[in-house]
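Protein modeling request. Please complete all fields; requests missing the sequence field cannot be processed.
Requester role: graduate student
Desired output: 3D structure, token encoding
Chains: 1
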Amino acid sequence: MTTTSAVSTSGSTSHVTGTISGLDTDALIEAAVAQKTARADTIDVKVTANQAKVAAYQTLQTLLQAVSDSMSSLAAAAYSSVSTTTNAFDEKQAYLTASDGSDATDILAISADSDAIAAAYDISVTQLAKAMKVASAAQGATAALGLDGVMSLSASGGTAVEITVTADMTLGGLASAINAQATASGVTATVITGAAGAQLVLSTSGANQQVTLSTVSGDDIGLGVGLTDAGGAFASVLQAAQPSIVVIDGLTVQGDSNELTDVVPGLSISLLQATTAGQSVTLDIEANYDDIKTSITDFVSAYNALRAFVTTNQTVGSDGAVADDAVLFADSILRDAGRQLNAVLSGAPSSAGDEVANLADLGISFDADNQLVLSSETTLDNLLLTDLASVASFFETRFTADNANLKLLKNATALSFDFALDVTAVDGTIAGVSVNGDSSLFTVSGSLITGAKGTIYEGLSFALASATSGTIAVKIDQGFANRITSLLNGFANTTSGVIQTQIASLEDIDASLTTKADEIRGDAEDYRARLVARYAAMETELYAAQTLQSQIEAILGASSDDDS
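Delivered output (564 residues):
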């Protein structure tokens, strides 16, 4: 018995079924299609390799950025006259010590900003500032006041507000009416209930303020609830208003609150409690050594993580083969970044002095695996405590100009400079600038002077106010931190860095390759369909021939029977 051929579909693949030729048509078709898609498979391998390289580049980008970030707090801030940017060397730390050995932080809380001057202060707190508090007579908490009138209420420095009281209002209702206007008046109200009944307590929102209460119209509300007596004075003053009084280095300072923000430049002093007789607190303002040291040790850790990655990508097996995880083996970007970074690490920045000229002077050295180690923490600690200026000089960039009107606005280069900037000005406006007669090195826009792209001055920009014609001597000594951040930004910047450019290129290549592979596989599937149709037609023709043969054989067989 024979069966006719047909075409069946499984998913997106068609097959010839019911073959009578004895041929494995599916295998023949698959072999032919595989030959067509072989190139697409090769493309897939290339795409996978590119994706692995992109992932490795992204890891390198992150590691380089971490090294740069560790140095950013030690890099010099912009030299703009309007800049408020500071770095770790500008930060200050406050240290408190009580004369009797008690916990000084129970007495004072201090915050210091970059304007604070490193100095020591002797402080005693004579009294804390207090808000005025007055209380009403005790009465029923839920009873109607039975008063109908308007009273005026305010604290010193606040706005007098009018509080309307109705006969059915309770003490709680009166408190709510007062608090609804507390922002303007500076007076808040609380109902406190004790054994004798409920009392309305008024207090000023600020210290050293007086409460003022008067009748506008109708009943005398203050007298009615027992806040005031018949003469208008407060009947029960729970706490009198008083200023804060502190003595700093023998000078007495009086304030209206316990937050002193304008007594010593750069310091915010919070008074927490008064000192006892004979007790004082010593306040030492010093550089924030902890943050500086943390930045340095973070740099060591970040560099070592980068170094481990570089080592992994330079590994060659004992058989001379490149390790599987060395995705960036012999990569030019990895090689250039490592070479340029190591040049900075092994050299001395032009900003450095003789005391701290290199990393070794800070107690930092390389071990046998080319990892950084803080080999002498004592050296670093002593330098921070005794010669912070030399440490700052090593890390920070120094900018000098013999014209105070020239400000350095941008320093995105690792190079140091010493040049004469020739300025031509007309009516106070910059008409042109040049260096050694070359006017193509900088561009001018208003008062902004920018290093031209492609020149050694690219990455620099200056502002020149009140421009006059003449020559300005400019000197920029790049510090270690600025050299690191500028160098690595060129590699790791996620918008314009060399690595990001390479990642974008690989992703574009992969997109093109993937499109090509899809086209090849699409063409192969079309080819499959044609083969399926061709083999199905062949099987159908064979079936027809077989059927005809069977019919002929049947006829011939019948004729033989008749002849007999």
